[in-house]
């Protein structure tokens, strides 16, 4: 689970705009948001940097919350 879509919308960016800013396609952003694909660590860092540069104050853990371990 990730928070890309909610943070992207908070920044007022479309999937296409975010894709252009991080160097990928609108389709790839859609796949990331729907958890059909997992971005590389470099791409994750780019996402956080772009979101922060557009007014979202977020960390990697805000965009990709750690999964809770089950007992």
Overall geometry comes to globular
Distance between the termini: 19 Å
Mean of all residue-level pLDDT scores: 95
Question: What is the β-strand count?
Answer: 0
Computed CA radius of gyration, to the nearest angstrom: 12 Å
Summarize the amount of helix as a percent range. Answer: 55-70%
Question: Strand-and-helix sequence, N→C?
Answer: HHHHH
The helix tally amounts to 5
Q: List the uncertain runs.
A: none
Beta-strand portion reads under 5%
Judged by helices, strands and strand pairing, the structural class is mainly alpha
How does the major sheet shape up? none
Mind sketching the topology for me?
Elements: H1 4-10, H2 15-22, H3 26-33, H4 41-53, H5 60-63
Helix pairs in contact: 2-3
Summarize the model shown:
The chain has 71 residues and is mainly alpha-helical.
Would you kindly provide a written description of the structure presented here, covering whatever features stand out?
The chain is globular, with a radius of gyration of 12 Å. The two termini are 19 Å apart. With 71 residues, the chain is mostly helical. It is 56% helix and 0% strand. The model has no long low-confidence stretch (mean pLDDT 95).
